Amino acid sequence: MKNQKRNDSFPTLHTPLTEVDKLILRSHEPVLDMLNNLLGDDCEVVLHSLENLQQSVVHIVNSHLTGRSIGAPITSTALNMLKKMHQEQIFVTQAYFTHSKSGQKMRSITQAIRGENARIIGLICVNLNLDTPLQDFMSFLLNPNDHKKYGQGTDENHEKELFAENMDDLFHHTIEKVIAKVSNDPTISANNKNKSIITALYQQGLFELKGATKAIADLLGISTHTVYLHLRNCADK
């Protein structure tokens, strides 16, 4: 009896991706970096493409937790989550527990990424290491100096965020705050007050709001032409 040739390839389901699908997947890569900036080095975040399950990992942060790298295959847990998503028509799982190769307990969650025709083309898996001492984790979250490595500076460089109920509240609160700050700054001459106010509002993105130019001109008692003049100077810098 002749020996049969062994086939080492593992047949898996695959989802051919369109160019639009691939763009959608790549657009999620910054989400992984965002979660890394927020939660630190003890949270692994993985982006899977379903085009080739044998090499599904296309982006990963904090891979030291599981030892994986780009090109690694999908896990049995991720496959199970994918099956559940299809069966239950859900796109975000409940949190569940997994373990790393070294035995660390992790709290995990999986989100589906949908491409053209609303089909699932990828997954984002988040694995938070629960074996990290709570004191160390809280120290990272509460210490503003830890954010310097991400180019964010410290709390002193950030204003408190306003959670406005509507756009009018956001608009007027921001303008009033900037006007008060500039008005109380003795280093800014009276002739430069309006210019400084408009520059500050431009830097905060307020002119992205519809009708902002006229409203600010009315509040400052100047023409919209003057506002546009200052805005051109801002854009040229």
Provide an overview of this structure:
The chain is α+β, with helices and mostly antiparallel strands and 237 residues long. The chain folds into 2 domains: 19-150, Beta-Lactamase (2-Layer Sandwich), CATH 3.30.450.20; 159-236, no CATH class. Helix content is 39%, strand content 15%. The chain has helices at residues 19-27, 29-39, 76-88, 134-142, 167-183, 193-203, 212-220, 224-236, and strands at residues 43-49, 57-61, 96-99, 105-114, 120-129. It has a 5-stranded antiparallel sheet with strand order 2-1-5-4-3, with helices on both faces. Helix 5 crosses helix 6 (193-203) and helix 6 crosses helix 8 (224-236). The chain is elongated, with a radius of gyration of 26 Å. Residues 175-232 form the Transcriptional regulator DauR-like HTH domain. InterPro entries: DauR-like, DauR-like_HTH, YheO. Pfam families: HTH_22, PAS_6. Residues 25-133 form the YheO-like domain.
